[in-house]
Amino acid sequence: MQQMKNLTVEEKNQLKLERLQSTLNRAYKSVPFHRNRFIEKCMLPENIVSLSDIERLPFMNRSHLGLHYPYGLFAVPLRDIVRIHTAPGTGTNPSISGYTKTDLMIWQKLVARSLEAAGVTSMDILQINLPPGLANWGRDYKDGAENMGASVIPNSPLSLAKTLMVLRDYKTTTLVTTLAFAEQLMEHMFENERNPNEFNLKRIVLVGEPVGVEQIKNLEEHLHVDVWLNYGLSEIPGPAIAFECLHHCGMHINDDHILPEIIDPVTREVVPPGQTGELVLTTLSARAFPLIRFRTGDMARFTYNPCECGSSLITMDWLAERADTMMIISGIKISREQVIIYLKDALEASHPRCKLEKIRHGGTEILSISLVIDDSLFSDEIKNLEKLMVSTSERLAELTGVPVKITLTEKKD
Amino acid sequence: MLRIKNLKCGYGRIMAIQGVSLSVRQGELISIIGANGSGKSTLLLAICGLLKTWDGEILFKDNDLKGMSPQSIVRQGISMVPEGRQIFAPLSVMDNLKMGGYTMYRKGLKKQVEQDLETIMDMFPILRERQNQLAGTLSGGEQQMLAIGRALMARPSLLVLDEPSMGLAPKIVEMIFATIQGLRQEGVTILLVEQNARAALKIADRGYVLETGKMVLQGSAEELLVDDDVKRAYLGKDYGNFYDGRD
């Protein structure tokens, strides 16, 4: 797929405007949620006559996805849907997104585009290792890499030792994983005195969270690889929304398919060029599940330096801070509110007092919950209490897609 | 080459086109597909200057076409093959072709007109065979070839075709599409409006789906060919129940 390389600025903007307008027409026609929001603003899709007019439209956020569970935001009839993905969401309902055949085709190309930018070719062997919470991305990377002719070892739950065996014996050249797993792998290798030169690994594509320069350097030096960062959304619509190219000059956003904006998370106004703010995305080609001004919660900044790769895609810096209260564990976004809602139900406590933290245990990132034990929770049978904690953490782990550890702490008066 | 932004137009109070944007780049073959009454032909009429008033922006080679007469738009390089051929039935085939070369002739390029006549008759040998026959006596397919030939006589940089397959037998349609594809390979930029979505997309680079005066979909021909929406647009059917077929 062309990266709009041969297009002039006007041609590129024309293409984006055409796609934006037809996205809005489709959303207005087929999704009552979007139609009602237009009506509330006394607007019609045809009132959007330029790219900047998008600022007149209201924002979407993760809570909208849960509120319209399961199919309320789909813009095509169910019979056109060929894949349905689930993400944890932020409230009581998960977020469901759907894809038509064309959507999947476009995503495959976008994933392939991001892999090609990292130097992956059809000669590469690509291994995917992602936690259950990012399993959707695993499928997208598999499809994208297969589409470009690479050999793919799909995501499957394997022990660390087994993963390492596959990595070495199958002569994997490219590993798609999270920072947490890459670091765990590195530590395991060194603990077991394995030399990175035993492996054919040339590059690691990191997904799920912003990664600092130091962490990248550490991985590159110890594993003798090049590290590339990909930006994606686990809810929608996929993993390769932005990617680094060979020149590592920031992340190229696939803005021919997803229109990015940066807003001030407080005033909700679009910030001046080059300033930091929350990344807001609008899909330009998604058929089944259009997003209009979706607030990602991720903080970013557009960079305007032309990249040596010649791509005309917008570039951004992906920053570590967040515009919302979500935590990122093993690349998976966890909503604190959702965890607390869940705890309330499971423990039948009206206001469970707890502290949520990300900890590392045996190389794995874990959601640690220190729960203050009070009269409503207390049971004279330790066994019962233990059972409750185990079952709660198991179900929370299923919900969030990351391991959960609950510890009880005493009430401090 | 052609860039349309937020085009709105219609007939009296009926807005047939409600804010359409579309673009054709040099060397591309673009198909616009849509059901009956979706506004496809109206869009072409606006481009060719046959519709007097419209809102929005139509740029051809960076020149604004607003207010231009159909003749000056032809001089700019846009030639149209109208729906239903509209050849000059009482004139001979040769005279029809010469009429197409009128703008060239007026520019004093008589030699080129002669050359073009030969090229076109090489391209469509049947027209050479019947050059002295009255155009009205040609079969539907032959008339379509004549209409295309006539448009090409103006040496357009953008050839606009409105429903070239209409009323033709499937075999002839195939031939006409092969001709269009051939023109494209020779470097002619083409904007094709068709109800026969499948055939039109098979030869196109990109496509647009028009529905009741609004653009609802666009993409590469390959993407659109697998899209269920396109099948519906072609059939002119609207969405059924959301759960239709999956109850």
Question: What structural keywords apply?
Answer:
heterodimer; A: 413 residues; alpha/beta; Rossmann fold; Alpha-Beta Plaits; three-stranded mixed sheet; 32% helix; B: 247 residues; six-stranded mixed sheet; 11 helices; 10 strands; globular
Question: Care to describe what's here?
Answer:
Chain A has 413 residues and is an alpha/beta fold. Chain A folds into 2 domains: 1-317, Rossmann fold (3-Layer(aba) Sandwich), CATH 3.40.50; 335-409, Cation efflux protein, cytoplasmic domain (Alpha-Beta Plaits). Helices cover 32% and strands 25% of the residues of chain A. An 11-stranded mixed sheet of chain A has the order 4-3-5-6-7-8-9-13-12-11-10, sandwiched between helices. Chain A has a 3-stranded mixed sheet with strand order 16-17-18. Chain A has a two-stranded antiparallel ribbon with strand order 1-2. In chain A, β16 and β17 (364-372) form a beta hairpin. In chain A, α7 (179-191) packs parallel to α8. The longest helix of chain A has 22 residues, at 9-30. The N and C termini of chain A lie far apart (62 Å). In chain B, a hairpin with a 2-residue loop joins β9 (206-211) and β10. The longest helix of chain B is centred in the C-terminal third of the chain and has 16 residues, at 170-185. Chain B contains 11 helices and 10 strands. Chain B has 247 residues and is α/β, with parallel strands linked by helices. A 6-stranded mixed sheet of chain B has the order 6-7-8-3-9-10, with helices on both faces. In chain B, α3 packs parallel to α7 (140-152). Chain B has one domain (2-235): P-loop containing nucleotide triphosphate hydrolases (Rossmann fold), CATH 3.40.50. Chain A binds chain B through residues 10-11, 14-15, 17-19, 21-22, 25-26, 29-30, 45-46, 49, 71, 74, 76-80, 100-102, 105-106, 285, 287, and chain B through 3, 5-6, 8, 18-19, 21-23, 25, 208-209, 211, 214-219, 222-224, 226-229, 239-246.
